Amino acid sequence: MIDQFALSQAMGLLFTSFDPWIWVIPGLLIGLIFGSIPGLQISMAMAVFLPVTFGMEFLQAMLFLTSIFTGGAYGGGVTAILMNIPGSSSSIATAFDGYPMARQGKHNEALGLGLAASVVGAFFGYLLLLLLIEPLAAFVLKIGPMEMVVVVLWGLTLIATLNDSSLSKGLMAGFFGLILSQIGMSTTGIMRTTVGNPHLLDGIPVVPAMIGIFAASELLRLRGSTYLVQDKAQRDISIPRILKGVVETFRYPGVLIRGSLIGAVIGAIPGVGSSVANLVSYGEAKRTSKTPQAFGKGAPEGVTAAESANSSSEGGSMTALLALGIPGGAATAVLLAAFSFHNIIGGPSFIRNQTDIVYSIILGNLGQVVLLAVIGLLMLRVLGMVVRVPLSYLVPSVLAMCAWGGYGITGTIAGPLTVAAFSGLGWLMRRSDYPVAATVIGLLLGRMMEGELVRTLQISGGHPMNYLLERPIALTLFIIMILVLVGAPVLKAVRKRKQASAEHTS
Amino acid sequence: MTGKISATHAALLGIIMAISGFITWSALSASTKLNNLVVVAPVAAALLLLTVTIVVGALRKPMSAETETHSAVWGDLLLLSGFAAFCFALTYIGFDVATFLFVWAGVVMSGGKGLWQPPLFAAIFTLLLVKGFGSLFPYPMLTLVL
Predict the structure, then answer these.
(1) What is the dihedral of CA A134, A136, A137, A138, to 10 degrees?
(2) Does A393 lie at the interface with B, CB-CB under 8 angstroms?
(3) What domain of life (chain A) (predicted)?
């Protein structure tokens, strides 16, 4: 699986001089900052700093850009934990349990959990990439629209589990997101409503909508309080408590490994990536947990599942880029631009002819992950100070940043206005106990699902179920999904009944 | 005792129904082909069904005691309206002036004490935002003073 000679050459490239590593720490810091500010996207950071790489060696440029990617993947989780504002769509599930932990004064532990899960997840993702890059590339080529439909459906099933008090409200919120995703031109070029606004031609911009519905509505709810963490003694940023969180991560090895695996596999599918991976992983962690009722109220397993998956999906997304030359998302598209800057074309010939470079990129990323653990720990002291800011100052400041973030995404007034509209919607939803996350999931996955469904219908000649039987990967994923969805609750119910009857007889 | 739907819940359900009805009507008028309605039609039907379920469920449930005061709701609505106005004003009166005014007013509305602290904080925050956050934007940004 590993070309030993190329591996030793890669070691030589990486460790005979310090040059490839010079830009790694600045890259991680840039990623952490961009990732932790809602509205500043990792891909945007990579694009902004892309021209800087023009004068760099190829490997140096790759390590710099991927370090922004790595730092950003964790940065998004920090604001999700501290303020319930996911820095990007890949951190949505982190907020589900990270934020309740922070409100309980366990922000140090939550940040530690997130950091450790991110480090382990990213490490696992790249390790898998190093071992399996060639077979994974073959797997990616076999992924078609039918497989994508199944994966997206899997992500959507999380909607039903988001509201314990009322399933109908969870479904309502999710379906509302799905119908909102249908605004604008359809994937087949049919013009549906844009409400007369040309900015809506491509549909509602998801990230500004997410910022509005999550952040603004939550900030309004906080208005009556004085601090994010009420107890003064709990407000400190404590390295020992962060480290306690780090250690706690390893109490859930199953969640950690499953999350990393889900992230790596889903991340490898072009166009799906970390946005879906963190949701699927969270959903699976909740379904298989012994205490599913604790999820959404500050369960450490939830943070671990979400962060391990979104970080390991980074390694997965590099699979398609390195092995096939296909960018799986915006961030890898910027990496592809850096490839062309240096006259390099990704794909099978790149792996075959320049295996040492491919290995050095992967090994360099493994090194970056270790550095992230150190840099992240040091930066948490600064980023975590948000809990010490009085809410009377924090709420309007973050609201203003949310509007700015909306503008940063779209470059037009449509961004801030989307943030404003969705903040109102989020406020109404939260008041009536609807899970706002379900709407975001629907909005995020609706368009993706429509496109893949239409392609599946066209390829199958209108007989998708027959076509499913011809697609072994899709069929396997579908069967696993059904088993997980139906089988796991049935098994749990049987076990509960047995336990109850055993208690009754004793 | 039977329950009733709160005004904000009714407003939300009304908004959801209005939006989904409009999107469905618009999609149907654009094209009635399966490709165009593959998501819209089933989702709209599900939304209608769920609305009925939720309304019936809420009406049959015993009435819960209102815990929140009206002033809190109006305070939220006031800040929301201010936020919407701020978002709208960004590209008209400039990011700097709009941010300064919104943050100042927001701090006061959220309980910030003192005469000079809120405007001073708003000014420093705006300066940092324009020079820091704004410089990272790949788009032009209208400012009036800075």
Answers:
(1) 90
(2) yes
(3) Bacteria
Please give the Cα distance from B14 to B20 (Å, whole number).
10
DSSP A90: G
- Percentage of the residues of chain A whose pLDDT score is greater than 90: 18
Best B17, B47, B83, B133 residue to mutate vs chain A (most A CBs within 10 Å): B83
Spatial CA neighbour of A209 closest among A397, A40, A404, A417: A417
User: If you search the block for the tokens 């055993």, which residue do you land on?
Assistant: A502
B26: chain A residues, CB-CB within 8 Å = 192-193
> 10 Å Cβ neighbour count for A131?
13
Closest CA to A336 of A348, A351, A323, A326: A326
For residue A339, the number of C-alpha atoms closer than 13 Å in the C-beta half-sphere is: 22
Minimal CA separation from A33 to chain B, in Å:
11
The answer to whether the CB of A429 falls within 8 A of the CB of A439 is yes
Give the count of alpha carbons within 13 A of B77, CB side only. Answer: 8
Closest CA to A451 of A89, A191, A140, A152: A152
Mean pLDDT over each residue of chain A, to the nearest integer:
83
pLDDT band at A445 (very low <50, low <70, confident <90, very high): confident
Please tell me the total number of residues recorded for chain A in this structure.
Answer: 506
Q: How far off is chain A from B144, nearest CA to CA, in Å? A: 16
Query: Who wins on pLDDT, A99 or A353?
Result: A99
User: In this predicted model, what pLDDT tens digit does every residue of A85-138 receive, in sequence order?
Assistant: 787 778 888 988 998 998 888 888 999 999 999 999 999 999 988 887 767 667
Close Cβ partners of A432 (under 8 Å, ≥ 6 residues apart): A169, B6, B8, B9, B12
